[in-house]
Each structure stands twice: as structure tokens, then as C-alpha cells.
Amino acid sequence: MLATPIPAISSSSSGPRPFNLSRDSRQVLGLMDISFGRIGAASGQRVLYDRLSISQANPLAGRLNIPSRGMVPGFVWEEDGKIVGNVTLLSSEIRGRYLIANVAVHPDYRRQGIARGLMNEAISHIQSLAGETVLLQVESNNEGAISLYDSFSFIKLGNMHQWQATGSRIRAIPDGSDFRDRIRPLSKHDFRAAFNLDCHSVHPDLNWPNPPPPDYYERGLFRRLTDFLNGRRHAAWVVETTSSAKQKRYLTGLVSITSDWGRPTWLRVRVDPRWQGHIERSLLSTALSQLKHTRSTNIRSNHPAGDEFVSQLLSQGNFNIRRTLTVMKLELLAKR
Fold first, then answer.
1. Do the strands 133-139 and 97-105 form a parallel or antiparallel pair, or are they unpaired?
2. 288 contacts 301 by C-beta, under 8 angstroms
3. Domains of the chain, first to last
4. Terminal Cα-to-Cα distance of the chain (whole angstroms)
5. What does residue 205 show for φ and ψ, rounded to 5 degrees?
6. What is the pTM of this model?
7. Cis preceding linkage at 212, omega within 30
């Protein structure tokens, strides 16, 4: 689809308009390359390719640019037939929650109010859908963009490091702690406790693009079957602790590995705040010993940038920081 020549746009209009997937995709992909660089463009292109997959699955909707549930793919800014700005809109699995991505302006057209105009269009459209909250990610060192989002009353939720490694180059982390004998595989009865631990460990909105659903860690027969058919693999280990007061056992740490065919392998570390700095070494030692033998050439992990202990351990395991993103949130109800 992307390789098909796109007829030139003869309109001499200037300003924002809805993004047409079938007509605008090629120009927007080129704009991402220019605006974001290799790493940022790759992330933005993944979002756009997912959009394209939806439109290809429903060619009539894609051809007519019919919005899903009133949701347009985003907006572009056009100058004399040339797309010089873009903002992508994504619906969320949570009702009333929307995502803004790929806010890009061609370098030759910056500082002309284009990004602000696109943001106005995006937020106004989300408000028309009775949206309640808007989330976005921005490079943490992009002061200009953060200042723009501040002016729209977005607030910072936190910074997330995006780590990356190659399976063949991962280094094992020695574990001499007292917790190495407490590590066990996640059982089928643990999925609710694992979900609660995940939510308690990291703010749900820092999980991009969506927080984990309640059944994220459940691996029943049906889930295992669909994972097998879709080429997905999932493994998880936990640390369990007994409360001295009530003699009740509860999960204090979790590490999981998820891989999808043709996509990166993801490493996830979650630790109860009361136990941070104590059990991460055992968890990561277990996971990295497994990843060291994987054939995956692209292993990633998103983790809060403020967690210095996990950062040190990932560095020891030969992970490198790919980029650092600031997650920002706008409460639309407060603006009404």
C-alpha cells in the first residue's frame, strides 16, 4: 500500500485537516523520518503501520476514511499541497482515555504555531467525544515540546527509560542475595496478586499505551492456546513473602518475559515499593539467565527512570538506554 504512487494534492489550502490514511500515509512517514530521527521515527511508524493494518482489514472504511467510534486517525497540517505537520490520535482500552502521538512539524515550518494548532484540533476532537483524559509521551530533553504541553495544562507523571539489548550479548548477573531461593515460577493462581503488584509498583498511566488489564498475568488453557497459535511466549517468576503479623503470604516481586513473533521481546520488572532495593537482583538474575539463550535480537524494557538500582542492574546485564520519555497527562474534565 505504501509503495503505490500517491497523486499530488492540488489544493493550495493552508492549515489543519483530518488525516486520511489512504492518501496521507506516505508523506507522514517521510515527515517522521525528518522530525524524529531513526529511533523516534521507528516508534511513530509502528503506530502508523498499526493504523494501516486496521484500514487494510476494512478497505471500505479506509478508502472512505470513516472514523471508528467517531475517532479520526489524527490531523495533518498542509501548506500548498505539502504535509508539514502531523498529530496521531489513538483511542484507549479505557473509556474516556485517549492518546496523542507523533506530534511532528517539518524543520522548515517550525515556530509558526503549527504544533499548537494541531494540538488544538486534537484536544477539541477528543472533547467532542466526551473524552476525560489525554496522555502523551515526549522525549525528556525536548524542552520546547514540554513547554508547549505545559501551556495546555498537561502535567508530568514521570520519566520512563526505554532499555534495549541483544540476546546474544546479555551478561548474566551474579546473585548472592538471600532471595535467590525464594524465586519461583508464577502459578496460575497468582494472576490477581501479580496484577495488583503491577498496579501498586508503577503508576498505571506510565504503562504505554495501556495499563495491564486484570487478566494480564492469567495463563489459563485458552490463553496458552491463543499464545501458541499467535507465536507468543510468556514466562514469569515471583518472590513471595510471609507477613510476620498475619502469617499471610503475598507477592513482593515479579519479573516477566513476553515475546511476539516478529516483534521485540519485552522484559518487565515490578517490585513492591517496600521491598525495592532488596529483591531486584534475584529477579533479574533469573530473567537474564533465560534471555541469554534467546534468539531474539531485540529485547526491550520500559522502567521508571528514577529507579537507580534497576538501572544499575540492567546496565550490568549489557542493556543500554534507547531513549527517555516523559509521560504527561491532561484532565479534560477539569477544563470544562
1. parallel
2. no
3. 14-131 (3.40.630.30), 162-324 (3.40.630.30)
4. 41
5. -75, -10
6. 0.83
7. no
